[in-house]
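seq/struct pair 1
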Amino acid sequence: MASLQQDISTLPPRSPVRVRFSKDVNLEPEKVHVEPEGPNPARLPEAHVGLLIVHHGYEVTFPVDHSFGKNVVIEHPQHNICVTTVSVSEAATTEDGKFKHVIKILVKTLKDGHLEEKIRLMSEEDESKGMDILVTATIIAAGKGIPLLKDGVRVVSHEHAEESDLSDWHGHKIIA
């Protein structure tokens, strides 16, 4: 044991640790986008929002390319509680002749776990033309870390999950 202590004491002082990444490592947050064929069992187009914290509200913006018209509307076939539509931009035309809309939704994280909710983007003129998009996110409990939000995701609200006894007021005590 004494020889181990002696060996440690003869070591030079530690220098600060520096982490270096190769030039091909992308340290920028990923953008939210719609994968045409998501990894879900139904193979629906999927917009993965990323890692979020429970009891927060997030505004999520992402582009969608499609070929079913300039004017579109969004429906919520599941009567979503966690995902609501904020806006749909005017159509732009892509190089390949498709239409592109930027969709803005509000995501409320009510419990930790995995969020999966469907929204339906469809033509305003012809309801038979449309697509379902699965909005997914992984939600972690408060205090379990601070996620790096993807580009297109921003926090818009924070709800307190539970009330504390510290906030209960029982009035002034009268001292006689």
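seq/struct pair 2
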Amino acid sequence: GYGSSFSVKKTGFKDKRSSDSNNCKNVTLLAIDAINYKHNYHSQFSQLNINKEITKAYCGFTSSSSFPSSSPFPSSLKSFDDFPIATGECGCGAFIGDKEM
């Protein structure tokens, strides 16, 4: 992660979706703030913090104007390959978050 270094480990991810005439991808960007667990690693496993992370993700995915209000996914979704999600292991670098969480 970035932390205070402003650098990130490259993963080799290649977005193979087509681009429009301006070479832009049709994407929705969702940013969810990571919690710093450096000083209390085990607190991320508390029910309170698990609920907080689930709520943040739910709110992010269901509040996008690109999606129908009743679903966190586009109505044209034919497979999950059409709707890639890249987490970048949010908070698991500089903030010592658990990757499985």
